[in-house]
Amino acid sequence: MWHEHAAIEEDPDPREVAFLEDRINEFNFAATGIHDGRLLASFLRRDTGEISAGIFGWTWGDCCEIRFLWVDGSERGRGYGSRLLLAAEREAAARGCTQIVLSTHSF
Description:
This protein has about 110 residues and is α+β, with helices and mostly antiparallel strands. The protein has two helices and four strands; from the N terminus they run H-E-E-E-H-E. It is globular, with a radius of gyration of 17 Å. About 10% of the residues are buried.
């Protein structure tokens, strides 16, 4: 049953978001025949195990998307973001990617 009004949620259930992602992936795999989608992540940790920087994204086909790249404010300016991005670029190339998508803001 369809509802005419689609309510926008500010805090969606992560399982429902994962459901959408899975359906999109299923469609894309079926439409293209490409089934090589893989996640990609790397984290820099302090001696305590606390994350001080990290990168997360995925690869599929010849494309890599970086969804998140973050460095703790106290660690910025030390090249950690560049190091994480270079590691992701190298891994994406090893997986056959010819392009990387990264959206960011400049303040």
